[in-house]
Amino acid sequence: MTETPDYRPQVPARPLRVGLIGAGGIARTAHLPAYDAWGIPVVAIASRTASAARELAAQAGVGTAHDSVAELFADPRIDVVDIATGPAGRLDLIADAVAAGKHVLAQKPLSVDAAELPRLESVLHSARDRGIRVAVNQNARWAPAWRLATLLVRRGDIGQVVGVTHLHDKPLPPLTGTAFDDVPHMLLSDYLVHWIDITRCWLEGTDVLAVTAQDSRVPGQPGEARNPWHASLQLALASGASASIRVVGNARAKAGGCPFWIHGTQGTIRGSVLLGSDFVELERGGERTRYPLEGQWFTDGFAGTMGELLTSIVEDREPENSAEHVLATVRLGMAAVGSAEAGGAPIHPEELVLTPSGRAQGVRA
Question: How many CA within 13 A on the CB side of residue 82?
């Protein structure tokens, strides 16, 4: 049997201390439970609403609830700031954290506004000059099945990647009547960011030639559901590889999941994530290896992103999920939205280069 790479989250023996910004559902149900399970110390919480921070701190057993985000930035005990807020104002929070000398884990999507990118790059340049690490909470990179698949691809178990295929075969999360109603092309600009991001990780080392995307309403979609429930995205790459991501709609399936295929010149990886469907299988040379998996995307993926940031700080290196690396994912998402706005016409980025983790430049896979 092929040796199984270590796909579980890695956390330093003595983790640095975290201050959490945000007291919403994702902080409550994912960030804090993950950090508690993996021994990552959260010493303070702040939110735009002080009462929400106090309530969450009391529920989670966190000793300090600051009355303002500025107080949290000034807290000398905090080494790393976890920004678990929505996209609005996120760049300001990253810039303020860097100015305060704090390392940063920022929620995804890192940005949905192309006009922000020059300032974002300036902030990241300042952080790099000061030795401050800025990472992105692309937690799906540490979903057990996707993380193992990434490590198998990196190890060369299927040779050069020929194609990546994803199918969303599960119900969509609750969208109608939520803030997602007000996010244009929500599936492409927000929800599918995880799928876009993991796909570029599997295709690193080549240039993206074209991004094509469409979204549309589906039969039976209620009128009050303002955003399209179907979306599809295709990538064409200079290596000749291709990628496809497809959400057919709000799938009526209890036993579904999100299957994926990574075809290579020497083998194939098959797998799935979510709804208990998780598995990874490697087929090579006429033999199949099914790998046992432990853990779940929620909440182990959240421990993975923070653990990688903390480990990178201790080891004085760039994290795999550095903001500079994730910029390629951001640009892919923006290109997808641009294509959908143009009725599915291909977008040809001038430079979209997908480089290996920690060394991203421009937009390359």
Answer: 33
The tokens of 163 are what? 């194609």
Location of structure tokens 């929800």: 191
Query: Residue 23 and residue 318: Cα distance in Å, rounded?
Result: 28
Query: What single DSSP character describes residue 210?
Result: E
Hey, what are 73's tokens? Answer: 């930035």
Q: Pick from 284, 289, 286: which is nearest to 271 by CA?
A: 289
Burial of residue 257 (number of CB atoms within 10 Å: 0-12, 13-18, 19+):
buried
In the numeric block, the tokens 């799935």 are attached to 272
* Cβ atoms of 83 and 104 closer than 8 Å: yes
Tokens at residue 47, please?
């939110």
Query: Hey, which bits of 119-267 come out as E strands?
Result: 134-136, 161-168, 206-216, 230-237, 242-247, 258-264
256-294 pLDDT per residue, tens: 999 999 999 999 999 999 999 999 999 999 999 999 999
DSSP state of 192: T
Provide the whole-model pTM: 0.95
Q: What are phi and psi of 40, to 5 degrees?
A: -95, 115
Name all domains of the chain by residue range, CATH numbers in brackets.
18-139 (3.40.50.720), 144-293+322-364 (3.30.360.10)
Residue pointed to by tokens 């529920």: 59
Tokens at 214, concatenated = 């469409």
Q: In the predicted model, what is the mean pLDDT of residues 246-256?
A: 93
Alpha helices in the chain (DSSP H): 25-26, 32-37, 50-60, 69-74, 90-99, 117-129, 144-155, 186, 193-202, 302-315, 323-341
Length of the chain: 365
Residue-wise pLDDT for 49-91, tens only, equals 999 999 999 999 999 999 999 999 999 999 999 999 988 899 9
Q: Which residues is 247 bridged to in the sheet?
A: 168, 231
